[in-house]
Queue: 2 jobs
Job 1
Amino acid sequence: MDTLAKALKSNIRQYGMIIALVFIMLLFQILSDGILMQPLNITNLILQNSYILVLAIGMVLVIITGHIDLSVGSIAAVIGAIAAILMVRMGVPVWLTLIICLLIGALIGAWQGFWIAYVGIPAFIVTLAGMLLFRGLTMVILEGQSIASLPESFLNISSGFVPDLFDEAGGLHLTTILVGVLLSLLLIWSEWRHRMVQKKYGVETIHIGLFIVKVALLVAVLNAFMFILASYEGIPNLLIILVLLIAAYTFITNRTVIGRHIYATGGNVKAAALSGIKTKRVTFMVFVNMGVLSALAGIIFASRLSAATPKAGNLFELDAIAACFIGGASATGGVGTVIGAIVGGLVMGVMNNGMSLIGISIDWQQAIKGLVLLLAVAFDFYIKNRSN
Amino acid sequence: MTALILEMKDITKTFPGVKALDGVNMKVRRGEIHALVGENGAGKSTLMKVLSGVYPHDTYTGEIIFNGQKCEFRDIKHSEERGIVIIHQELALIPYLSIAENIFLGNERQRRNIINWHETTVEARKLMERVGLDESPDTLVMNIGVGKQQLVEIARALAKKVELLILDEPTAALNEDDSKNLLDLLVELKKQGITSILISHKLNEVLAIADSITVLRDGRTIETMDTHQEQVTEDRIIKGMVGRDMTHRYPERKAHIGDVLFEVRNWNVYHPLHGGRKIIHDVNLHIRRGEIVGIAGLMGAGRTELAMSLFGRSYGRQISGKIIKNGQEIDVPDVSAAIRHGIAYVTEDRKNYGLILIDDIKRNTTLANLAKISRRGITQDYLEVQEAEAFRSKLQIKTPSVHQKTGNLSGGNQQKVVLSKWIFAEPDVLILDEPTRGIDVGAKYEIYTIIQRLANEGKGILVISSELPEILGICDRIYAMCEGRITGEISREEADQEKLMKMMTGTGGGKLGHAG
């Protein structure tokens, strides 16, 4: 019990927001008479928030390097517009459109990254300019109109589900259950291996009983989640994309030299440069990456809306930035995690969804979200100052 | 004998772990120029901060009597009201404001919070004339040179009706002409009845204008000399500044010196912003395998600038000259190239340039050589912990684990982490810039031991230090630097503090170093 308390205490920053997320989910589950956790609503929750989560992954890297990106919503909009023009007006195949759009996203990121990293103009200003520039270009490209009737396979990106390989049994999506079981095995194996490596290198490990409880809890949550999905249509395509992105970026930030360079650049740019890290190139690449992920978010949003509109992506940047800060990123750089940003994004998403379910008006929703952002960051400050 | 304007009695000031001032006494007569000299760390700046209220009256013990009254200053504002103004080494001017605005900063010519611009300009012009500053009051401070900025500071002091002006190393950043101007101005102000306390390392300047000289050493007053009543020489001042017991402060050294490992030829560097200002002039030096070479120089001599320009051109512009390692010329366009060629630079400013304070020990240790703990671009965390642990025990970094944030460590331990980082980068040549700045005596000894061990492994070490005993205690050979030039080269056997001090102040004749 002592060790558990200690582990909780030392990781309160890490787990604090996860606990908050669980608390918020339970709260709205009760307030909404159980609608929140219904299979349809959980699926919707994922689809509704997917583009913000994609943006948050890129944004957290930007924030770790000590910058900010206000232009991501506008970039998403302009990419949606370009995709629509390419597919509807010019008849370009969907796969080629996707490649072109991601490339344009990279180019836009490179454009902003150039001004920020190599010319040295503050990111706030460059991306504020980008926000206006790309919003304007969206209007120009769409001539102020929405473009609908996008191809079916394009819409499928956001509305599709992983097909069931088996016959449905009692309304359950069996493939989904199977994936859940496979993932559970993978989870158990990797946790065990991690523990063995820790032992080998003489790192202190948690008590075996606690370890079993922890793994069992994770497996239970995972399978409950998969069961909920299986009760509706199964695994949405978007969830696959999201999980792959989260896994890849978590790995990059935690385990690679590039990830280390990103944290070092944000932690102390002068010390990093004097340690041989090409800090300008790191900053540049982080913005290129942000451009690509903004493009992806634009594609997902257009696909989900079945249309490209001039207003697409409005205020996305603020949701993405808020997600990062709620998730524990520091405005001064050097601190933040991909998982944190995702949890932050989910906190915002669940609150949006939950407040809508219980009929709080959109105006109040804004105000409450603002307060939550402030309180979350204040909590973070409190924890940080206490540990000093 | 003129009356005293200031008397400081028995001033003692302690910082956590260090007694910076230990019963200091100082008497300043009205209308004189009083020089305060001593080595770096002797307590000069601390004493002046006590006097000017930077350290409020309840943070030290002792008495300050100014104009016959006992004073207990709460803050700078309070001491300024009484007529004591301090001009720090780092000028406190706002670059984007005009000269006139800076002169009256915090002391605005105003009526009911509305600034009277006419009066500001007219008054500023009068003050500028008094200090001999020939510029328009509307010129932005960023557009004038350091020498003129210094004059703006003095004008600002005059605007506050200063009686006692304190200048902390005013000429450190100035060239000869500007320095002479400034010193002439002090003499001129003296005639107008303004008393000055001048902190300076440049003894020739001190002897030229000071009426009295107080020597501080290790936080104690050594003596006060009256230049009108006795013959004061530089030698005598230097003796007062450096005379201290040096036994057992440095580990025993048995040098095994090999061939020339690293050589710099005709190295020239210009200021990164002011293109015309040459910072490093034709520097030649060399380091042999297993040799610890010192660079002695006063603040502003260009030591750090030299080191950083050698380390992948981290400082300066229009750099010219050759770097030769193992007999071959190498090209070092950036820091990663320098690291690749086996050069390491341990900064003098570990908090801003050496460490990522929000990161832990292990991440800081491996930062300059991540390749060593990664496979195909993927970091091996356990390998990292092992390596960092090895350094923690070898360098005796006193923390429970390598997961400790470096921001929470003491200065000595932080310095050891920075050293770990650079030893981990596996260099052949280490440039150590003030390796023991701001750390306690025990940790200093440990750092010296590490430096010797590195030399004994056959690495070449270049140590930059303002503490002469340190240079003499650990180096095999010493270069002296002054105003961007190497002004002397001397072996450990021949060297003593007086000879070095003469070479460093550009007053004595050390033989010029000719490498290669």
Note: The radius of gyration of chain A is 22 Å.
Job 2
Amino acid sequence: MLTITDCSVLKAAPLGDRQASKFFLLRLNAPGWTAEEWRPGQFVMVRPVAWESDLPLPRPFSICEVNKEELGLFFQVMGKGTARLGTLRAGDTVRVLGPLGNFFAMEADRPTLMLAGGMGLAPFLGYAHRHPKPQNLSLLFGHRPALDSYPFERLRGLGLLKNYHEQKPGDLRIFLQAVDESIQDNARRNGLILACGPMPFLRAVRDMGKKYGASIQISMENRMACGIGACQACVVKPFVEGGSADRPLPPVFRQGLPVPVCTCGPVFWADTVDLD
Amino acid sequence: MDSGPDKLAIAIPWARGLLGLRNPVLAASGTFGYGVEYMPYGDLAKLGAFVTKGISLRPMPGNPLPRVAETPCGLLNSIGLQNCGVERFISEYLPCLPDKGVKVIANIYAHNLEEFAELAGILSAETKLAALEVNISCPNVEAGGLLFGQDPQSAGQVTAAVKKRSGTLPVIVKLTPNVTDISEIAKACADSGADMISCVNTLSAMAVDVRSRKPLLGKGIGGLSGAAIKPVALRCVWQVARAVSIPVIGIGGINTAEDILEFILVGAWAVQVGTANFSGPDMIFRLPTELASRMDELGIASLESFRGSLQM
Ligand SMILES: Cc1cc2nc3c(=O)[nH]c(=O)nc-3n(C[C@H](O)[C@H](O)[C@H](O)COP(=O)(O)OP(=O)(O)OC[C@H]3O[C@@H](n4cnc5c(N)ncnc54)[C@H](O)[C@@H]3O)c2cc1C
Ligand SMILES: Cc1cc2nc3c(=O)[nH]c(=O)nc-3n(C[C@H](O)[C@H](O)[C@H](O)COP(=O)(O)O)c2cc1C
């Protein structure tokens, strides 16, 4: 379902260091989506109505949490737009376009490993809340800023939940080592792996997955303009060969042109798109 | 059926008659996909028309990423004309559009005169099309890479080549602002049979990052659009409208009804809205109504009387 909703801001709540936080939970009045109308992994394009033509583009964010009252987005201040979003006040109006894009696979009984790097944590909150058997879920989370910058404590009831704080050179290697072992273990149990984070992380995950024959979905964050598949800004090159009987390649992949991440993604099977 | 604010209806004269549009609000090429992408957000028939993404003879894969970067009041892009080619446009996209009420203008792009002519020939057979718009902001491969639109002679030649094969469709030639004298190019197109001029395309531009020491676009240079270019676009439309007698369609940085009126004031018959479609996909559908109310507020009785009424 594609909708545009004017949502009023309940709070742009800073996380972690309250004075200088660059991490916010943006809590919006719920746009009224039913559970069938959105799926974890989808995203929204957000633009406060007060933005004039100085910031023409809306900003894409993963849907983090949805309940009857609220739509929650989790973001980090990166540049002009997110800095302005961090100053939103209760009662301000934000235009929300979405839910957009496709979503992560979810199979209640399949061991599912979530791999998050930094802001890649966002979609997994909603995923964990929606999963019928969260005890079948594991999450490994690698991060550089302090843990309390992230809504990590909102994740409850998972089979395994572990964070890796990268504070000095070498810590990243420890995280990736743990990721590698978990991927191997998950593949052995014919599980499902979902990854979200920076591109170098996604590439590393893809490579490990290939080594162990794991089933991996990745979520991509290319620069977008329209968010609805019209402008061809956020494209990725799909592989025209590949796919399998249980998950055939989407027909547009066969046309040999790059495909928009906003409508064909943001979630892709890791072996179907060119991440290099 | 709601026919929209009646006083917005326009009939743009061309060589073989009138191009009748419900209102002067059109969606600009490359910002509105093939129309179908926007159908969930509004009724395409409520627009004057929409212009398709640039269509080439064969599919084009486009440029390296990143393809867009936001700049103050603007957008920089180097999509590189990624498109599915004319064949798939006709077989896959055109059939998805409603048969009645929606005016579709096909924007075409090629690298030599033969391809331009061939494209025009193929598309002129499509009854769902209302006009062709020729993007001449492309390198003329046979003339050493200078853009067709940067040389009066090449611009005239493309116009003539397309006109010869365009059948019963009016031909709009879309000008680039990246020239010394846009009037001269406009005249060359008009003299070669162009039915209308649209201007402007994006301004050649660049953005860089001092930390990474890299350009923000994968290709380095791109095209600037959005509110930032409106003053340039207004100047171009003003100059072109005075230089030629054929109708002009204004494009560049339009976000509001007031912006539309500015372009009409300097002589445009209609306008195209581009980058603003990215701010919200429903935005353009509200513009006709807003235009009508703004005209009421300002006491503008008709578009006709207001057009080109700038006092110098
Ligand atoms: C599908 C998707 C989901 C996302 N989910 C989240 C999320 O849940 N939380 C979060 O903090 N961030 C998320 N991002 C990244 C987020 O959109 C950018 O950090 C944000 O747009 C930066 O905007 P800015 O104005 O602060 O930065 P600026 O650099 O000023 O932005 C300029 C332009 O570049 C774009 N841009 C800049 N950085 C990125 C980036 N890393 N990815 C994509 N576009 C970028 C902006 O959207 C804007 O159009 C997501 C991106 C995508 C595509
Ligand atoms: C992402 C993007 C893609 C575009 N693609 C095309 C195109 O394929 N053909 C064309 O003639 N103009 C293209 N344009 C130019 C627009 O149609 C328009 O002339 C320009 O953006 C100025 O208008 P605006 O400021 O309202 O966006 C494109 C513009 C943008 C932003």
Note: Chain A has five helices and 15 strands.
